[in-house]
Amino acid sequence: MNRTAGGNRTRPPGRRDRRRPAATVATAAVARARRQSTPRYWFADRLLAVLSGQRPVHWMLGHTVGEAYDQLARLAPGAPLRPAERVTPVVRACDEFHPVPGVIEAFARISAGDRLTAMAFRLELCPDQRWRCTAIELGTPRASRPS
Hints:
By secondary structure, the chain is an alpha+beta fold. The chain has helices at 22-37, 39-51, 67-75; strands spanning 90-97, 103-112, 115-125, 131-138, 142-143. Helix 1 (22-37) crosses helix 2 (39-51). The longest helix has 16 residues, at 22-37. It is globular and about 55 Å long.
């Protein structure tokens, strides 16, 4: 720890530039809160990492059960969401439906450059109070429409 002769801590100066638009800060905070409040974004990001070839399949071993892990193991070697143009794929949106308590059926829109793909997965709350993925499905990629 760095200390001066008077015993005070020294550290680099903080950012003092407050010219950033407030909407950008608020939007980032809302997005961060939304991702932390529900498991669907966490799972969508992790599934995307495996299906794009950024992470190995066994990275999801404790987070998937039964047929979902087998399906992930079949899909991952082909890396169906691997970027074609050196553009990292990202989860653009992720919504959910609750058919019964303790079950989330989520669907995500994945984009990489001009390619748009759909991914759906089912999460179930297990007896140990952890969410686990029990099913995964991918849509076919298509070119996104210009906005």
